[in-house]
Amino acid sequence: MKIRILTLLLSVTALHAAAQYAVDQIPAALKTRANAVIRDMETTVDMRAPNDVGTRVRKVLTVLNKNGREHARLVLMYSKNSSIKYVRGQILNEFGIPKAKFNLSDFEDESAVDGGTLFSDSRLKHFLPNEDVYPYTVIYEYEERERQNLVLPQWLPNPGFDISVEKSQFTFLARAEDTFRINALNFAGKPVEELNDKQKKLTWSAAGLPAVRAEAYGPHPESFRPSVRIAADKFYYHGFTGKYSNWEELGGWLYENFLKSRRKLSPYTEGLVADMVKDLPDEKAKARKLYQYMQQKMRYISVQIGVGGFQPIPAAEVDQMAYGDCKGLVNYMQALLDVAGIESYYCVVSAGNYKKSLIPNFPGVEQGNHVILCLPLKGDTTWLECTSQKAPFGFLGDFTDDRTVLACTPGGGKLLRTPKLTAAQNTQLRTANFKVAENGTMTGSVETAFAGSQYDAHLTIANMQDKERLEKLKEQYDVDNIELNDIRFSTKEGTGPVFVENFNCTLPLYATGSTDNIYLPVNPFNRQNSIPDLRTRTMPLYLNRGYTDVDSIVYHIPAAWQMKVKPADQTIETKFGTYKVTIVQSGSQLIFKRTMQMNEGNFLASDYESFSQFISKIAELDRSRAIFTKGQSGSGK
């Protein structure tokens, strides 16, 4: 009888466990727009000591369909200073019944080195369930150990698009005497605190977070996703100890411990540099010369060994090897400038197309992912990108423009702002001249000048191999059967660098005809595409960077063609930007001019509908056609 009761209890327990993670137990609201659901996630970060931080995670995730498959992937990093203590898990079917188990031996192991990394002591283990029947649930349990607390794990209860959260909990444990700072973004809830004479315990919880859909022209995810960051006031990192509570202290510590002693060059190189700049008239001319020397001598490659994530390789070693990562190349450029007596600042930045500034009141070295150089020349602050062999002196592109950075100086850290690239600076100015043959084929020349962020976007084409370059240009100039030849590139210096692209081209049978009419699309190259009409948009509208495009094209029309319909001139003005197109007939010439300026800015989600209408109208006008007849007069329109 006792055995039967025990068996019954075990069966009931198993059924309850199965029912707990059955897919039909997920609230309907959490399935909306979701490809996966985090059913339950518990993360505990235990800072036992500055050099002993453990992270335990239990994560239950249901994959609803094949589009959510990647959400089930687990990637764990390890190195000489971090380890994976254990991993175990299981896979459940849609009814919550276990169907398979796995452990660390089932994970793939590979180096964390990528194509741009020469040295790294980091490796990774990763696992993705080999399931093709949906839905299914995966349970992960694992523990990691870090021998540092300079960078602590952060809590992101909702880690991506198209995934909802049933329940998530984050616990941080520390010794009673430890002090730390907390930064909670987009999260109004307060942590539950438990304090005693031995330990501090803080727990954050979130539940019922719906899936967020990725939407065109959306803001950076950090602007709306909830997160909690923690930074210890006193830290240990690869044998170094320190403390900071503001950017000034952090920048000062980085300078004193990671930077100050790394800028010494050999006597030979110092003599070479001194001789190189001795006859130049001012600091800017000297800096330009040294920057060009550095670009010609060096190549970029990532180095991530030991403290290499934050500390540059000594300048003398970089000089000898003729390569370095962003840290090493910035430090090397500083060393060259030191010889010339020119002050410079090593600056930590969060790089990327989105303009992401450092958090002003929450210092943390992990907020940066790149390093650039600032020269505080008198009345002419100059910024340098040191990883590019082609970037012009003093030019920062859209990878690092218009954001706050941390300058590490002998006097401590300073928050500075990089220059802004405006719509008036981010230009694409195109002129073209075409002769149209009787059969509709066009031949002519095209010149396009790119500046600002558009310079940055097109410079890479010049460095491609011929075949790759031709394919890329044909992709950009998307006209059927276009033939490009005599392709040339050049750069010009002015108030900012300009990249100029020239080519000759043939557009076979571009103007098409019927018995009575010939149709000539007046805008062959710069046609705006429509964007999704999201009437239920939830995200704010974010236009990341403004720009100005001007296209001026002259068509030489056959003498026998007579204008029948000329597209009307158009002007559209909105808060998002302006669009203007004019078409003038002058004898046998048809002169087309299109000007489009987009403004950057943050707008309400409700503004998206009018923005979509603005873009759709431009897309319609960009496909306008002039209509001609042969050998007979027609009226203009």
Question: Nutshell version of this structure?
Answer:
The protein has 637 residues and is an alpha+beta fold. It has three domains: 2-240, Immunoglobulin-like; 244-417, Roll (C8orf32 fold), CATH 3.10.620; 427-630, Jelly Rolls.
Write a structural description.
- By secondary structure, this protein is of the alpha+beta class.
- 19% of the residues lie in helices and 39% in strands.
- The protein has 3 domains: 2-240, Sandwich (Immunoglobulin-like); 244-417, C8orf32 fold (Roll); 427-630, Jelly Rolls (Sandwich), CATH 2.60.120.1130.
- It has an 8-stranded mixed beta sheet with strand order 5-4-9-2-1-10-13-12.
- A hairpin with a 2-residue loop joins strand 23 and strand 24 (412-417).
- It starts with a helix and ends in a 7-residue tail after the last strand.
- Residues 5-14, 115-119 and 633-637 have low confidence and may be disordered.
CATH topology of the largest domain: Immunoglobulin-like
Rg (C-alpha, Å): 30 Å
Overall mean pLDDT score?
92
Largest sheet: 8 strands, mixed
Q: Tell me the name of the CATH class of the largest domain.
A: Mainly Beta
Taking strands numbered 1, 2, ... along the chain, how are they ordered across the largest sheet?
5-4-9-2-1-10-13-12
Count of β-strands:
38
Which oligomeric form is depicted?
Answer: single chain
Whole-number count of domains: 3
Distance between the ends: 98 Å
Q: Give the CA-based shape.
A: globular
Number of DSSP helical runs: 10
